[in-house]
Amino acid sequence: xxxxxxxxxxxxxxxxxxxxxxxxxxxxxxxxxxxxxxxxxxxxxxxxxxxxxxxxxxxxxxxxxxxxxxxxxxxxxxxxxxxxxxxxxxxxxxxxxxxxxxxxxxxxxxxxxxxxxxxxxxxxxxxx
Amino acid sequence: xxxxxxxxxxxxxxxxxxxxxxxxxxxxxxxxxxxxxxxxxxxxxxxxxxxxxxxxxxxxxxxxxxxxxxxxxxxxxxxxxxxxxxxxxxxxxxxxxxxxxxxxxxxxxxxxxxxxxxxxxxxxxxxxxxxxxxxxxxxxxxxxxxxxxxxxxxxxxxxxxxxxxxxxxxxxxxxxxxxxxxxxxxxxxxxxxxxxxxxxxxxxxxxxxxxxxxxxxxxxxxxxxxxxxxxxxxxxxxxxxxxxxxxxxxxxxxxxxxxxxxxxxxxxxxxxxxxxxxxxxxxxxxxxxxxxxxxxxxxxxxxxxxxxxxxxxxxxxxxxxxxxxxxxxxxxxxxxxxxxxxxxxxxxxxxxxxxxxxxxxxx
Lengths: 128, 363
Prior knowledge:
The complex is a heterodimer of chains A (about 130) and B (about 375).
Chain A: E1 8-9, E2 14-18, E3 24-28, H1 30-36, E4 39-43, E5 50-51, E6 56-62, E7 66-70, E8 73-80, H2 89-93, E9 101-109, H3 115-127
Antiparallel strand pairs in A: 1-2, 2-3, 3-9, 4-6, 5-8, 6-7, 8-9
Chain B: E1 7-8, H1 12-17, E2 21-25, E3 28-33, H2 38-47, E4 49-53, E5 58-63, H3 67-74, E6 87-93, E7 99-109, E8 112-117, H4 122-132, E9 138-141, E10 146-152, H5 156-160, E11 176-182, E12 185-190, E13 199-205, H6 209-220, E14 225-227, H7 230-239, H8 274-279, E15 284-291, E16 302-305, E17 308-319, E18 324-332, E19 341-346, E20 349-356
Parallel strand pairs in B: 1-3, 4-14
Antiparallel strand pairs in B: 2-3, 4-10, 5-8, 5-9, 6-7, 7-8, 10-13, 11-12, 12-13, 15-18, 15-20, 16-17, 16-19, 17-18, 19-20
Helix pairs in contact in B: 2-7
């Protein structure tokens, strides 16, 4: 299981990559894609949408079920990863490259964990 | 995950050891998938072969001089012409014409039948059969003693021939062989399945299951055999448009509305539910939907023709072989035809679908 050091993580298993220009990319963690199984559909927001920290902004579907994706931050959608619509399996194969949205104007954020704390957290999830 | 009171099949340890992701189903702990994943497992069955643990299913014997008469009374299909070593599918109805379960009957000999029922309905079915028994017949629930494996895919005949003598392998679809030797243990083998592929369902003594499971995986490896879970079992049966109890039919739904007319013999002298089915008017039917818009249609979603609600989906998923989303729905019979372009309400969003002929996939 992969937990890149430079990213921040949520307890709902999203990652956020802060960029130098103040924008950020958001995606699903390796733990999330492994739990979800083969993804076959992804439903993304539109450029210009405003996301609210802790609220759902997208959903992904595995063969069996739909799962909501929660935003780590309050921000505006600057770009949407359109190619994912045709290749949802990219989220399974390369979760840290398969960003869902890039956001800007971040004004608030949920509780964010560093890689070590998130990894420890995933171990408590598995124990349930 | 609620683990209390969940039953384990004889193969539980094998699943855990093989990396099975265990989940509760019908009161049992079964693998929804292994490490390969649902898509890979589904494609293995379509292209090579898959092995399923279906030991949770129920097995009920129906024996006695009046066994045939009882079967013909309990079930909508006609078993009069069923030969030794032959199998036949039927719904089982209540007096209102609703479906109690769907099942398969295997004939071992005159007055000697083996019935396989859905896991979720096993106790209900057994109690019903016993309560409706007439004359010289005895029903016995053998489920706890019997394990069932399903070997499904084009390579299944080659694989099974490594453990079973050629003359003991059932040749025709829906035929079966009782009391054959499988790698040294007794088994019943039928040429049946729930995937739309060629294959076998294998019935063994529970204690023999782990060894045979491992032997099949060992000899099957060179043919591409892989273990498959419930996730693939559902995508396979839905692609092949096979009904699932609790979805396409239940106690409130007649077999005719569920698209099972060919298994209902209205010219039989009598059966439980016949009067209700004869008296009722058929207003609903089962159709297939292919998703043409963006999204995956699931069960229990409303189907619209324009602004008019015409029915509800009963099953839906992404179909891995077809690489598109498909669904089955129960709709107003006179409002919908093959070729119609409809929409389905998927969590508040209307997704475009087209009505297609069933099955979606045929081997």
